[in-house]
Design a protein that fits this description.
Blueprint: H1 5-32, H2 42-45, E1 52-59, E2 62-63, E3 68-72, E4 79-82, E5 88-92, E6 97-104, H3 115-118, E7 120-124, E8 132-138
Parallel strand pairs: 1-8
Antiparallel strand pairs: 1-2, 1-5, 3-4, 3-6, 6-7
């Protein structure tokens, strides 16, 4: 199964918004010529919109149209994303690394609900300009 063009465009939109925010901050700095900037931190200016991920979930060939995908970094808080009606999910990661993945929702076998037993892992590189495409084809 391939990711639809709409999903790819939506993912690119997320990435471009981060880049645009950085450019708006720099433009504001240039125009104000040293006036105090409010809301434009260095982190926003230098943020990299890489680390974009788009995926789909199917169990026994059937799309999962609701539920949650949870990404567990090696340290820090987990990241949850909703599974959409077209069985897809998206996220733009701010940190590179290895993330364990858990899936929760109706029709998803219980073993996938725990990141330790799911066996699902994704490697994120925020320096990459290519979106990561994940297609989970699971059995019950």
């Amino acid at each position: 199964m391939t990711v639809s063009k709409n999903e790819q465009y939506r993912l690119l939109e997320f990435a471009l918004v981060g880049k645009l925010r950085g450019w708006v901050c720099w433009l504001g700095f240039a125009v104000s010529a040293g006036a105090m900037m409010i809301g434009c931190s260095q982190a926003e200016v230098s943020s990299n919109p890489g680390g974009a991920l788009v995926g789909t979930i199917h169990v026994d060939g059937q799309p999962i149209t609701s539920g949650t995908v949870i990404f567990y970094p090696r340290s820090g808080a987990p990241i949850s994303r909703e599974i959409l009606e077209d069985a897809s999910f998206t996220h733009v990661f701010s940190e590179s690394g290895t993330y364990q993945v858990a899936l929760q929702g109706e029709g998803i076998p219980a073993k996938y609900g725990d990141p330790e037993s799911s066996g699902l892992v994704v490697e994120i590189d925020t320096a990459s300009t290519e979106p990561i495409i994940v297609e989970y084809e699971l059995g019950s």
